[in-house]
């Protein structure tokens, strides 16, 4: 039944496949019957693709086979016809050299699977870091109604009476193990306790950052991103998504109506207030550009300066994890605190405004979700730097580093590769002081390859033994959203393609000034010019295959690392396929 301003059954996208009285449609209908469905089940109904990023090696999505059933239940209840569409399962734990190499592959797959099949709307099932932006980027470009179902965070980690946070505590305990402070038994206990349920990392790492951003963009149901994966509420969320996507199809509520300038701005403000992962920068830019919103690093920095970080969840916050955030009221409650800064009129997948979605939410623990008058950090969690080391920008997370590094000068210790750096940090006799600036290059989008999460360079053993746990580190890599410390990341252009980081030498003095957003090497221009003319480009990382294609087409960090030919302004869309 058509709704006001919506579509009628004969206008369903899938009707092009199934409705005509011709030979092709006969074939499509007969193949549906081969699958065991009678015409009454699918003809004239919204066909809902459930884009499922599950695999048996994706530990964060272990509940998806069950959750698909909940989504299907909702779709059927609302009069739609659900079909599961398995898509690329990119996970943080096992995908090497880095899941980031495959974010764009997932985005391409999502876009093409939607475009080439008789789907009227999609439920996007993701959560483990890159799956969220990958699915969202593809769905925005594909342009059919889409709703994002976040995997939900796992339960708090637990061992021997202590609460453990994903990633963050792994690094912390590893440093203690390297310092000889914990036993094998304790190490094994942490291993078993740090990830004890299905769901995504339960710090405010990249997964929860990206699902929170997606909710703030308006692409998830209100409150969805905060529900723990193991909570029965998450099953109900699955069927809610199933019911709602069917209505969205009738309403013709497509992503371009949701992902507007105002929505992107809302998402950035929420990201900064949550103490987001540095990866948010790259993914936000890429997602926004897919919708034709030209978000820049400078926009992100400007909004960060005026948005206090009010979410006290680790690693930027001190004490709490996503489970606590859920009990404290979750993202809806956080958005009530930000209501004066947000554009509450932005449309969401509910068909109503963002403000209607968080209306009535309460903060139940104001130490977890702080009022603006008592923030965890007075600005947003990220700062964008520029200078002669990073003319196209770099990112630091001041909220998660020791304030004594906000303004810092020290001699560089430069490594050209990860193995070289790793060998040095394990050398107990390494000549290094806490004022040194450790630098890793050839770790960017092309150099890594794939922009790996190497940016939280390990503190050298020599310093660990002296009790140091932070130092200034610089790279053209990313870092895990669960990481922390004085790490400058995403230096652009990257060194592998001749960015100025390639010209830095061990012993050069590097100067960081976070309040003034500067990062420079104190080397004069004539000397830099001399080094530039002597610089030789390294051998390409790939000679064939997907990696070769990636290297040819990936953009730099400040542009979101999308492929040039996937971006909106690259060329005209192929449109609907001939049937
Ligand atoms: Fe999947 Fe962290 S490993 S979200
Ligand atoms: Mg991560």
Automatic annotation (TrEMBL):
Residues 367-561 form the Dihydroxy-acid/6-phosphogluconate dehydratase C-terminal domain. This is Dihydroxy-acid dehydratase. Pfam families: ILV_EDD_C (PF24877), ILVD_EDD_N (PF00920). Residues 45-356 form the Dihydroxy-acid/6-phosphogluconate dehydratase N-terminal domain. InterPro entries: Dihydro-acid_dehy_C, DiOHA_6PGluconate_deHydtase_CS, ILV_EDD_C, ILV_EDD_N, IlvD/EDD_N, Sugar_Degrad_Dehydratases. GO terms for molecular function: hydro-lyase activity; iron-sulfur cluster binding; metal ion binding. The lineage of its organism: Bacteria, Pseudomonadati, Pseudomonadota, Alphaproteobacteria, Rhodobacterales. It comes from the Bacteria. PROSITE patterns: ILVD_EDD_1. Keywords: Iron, Iron-sulfur, Lyase, Metal-binding. SUPFAM superfamilies: IlvD/EDD N-terminal domain-like, LeuD/IlvD-like. The keyword Lyase applies. It comes from Paracoccus isoporae. Belongs to the IlvD/Edd family.
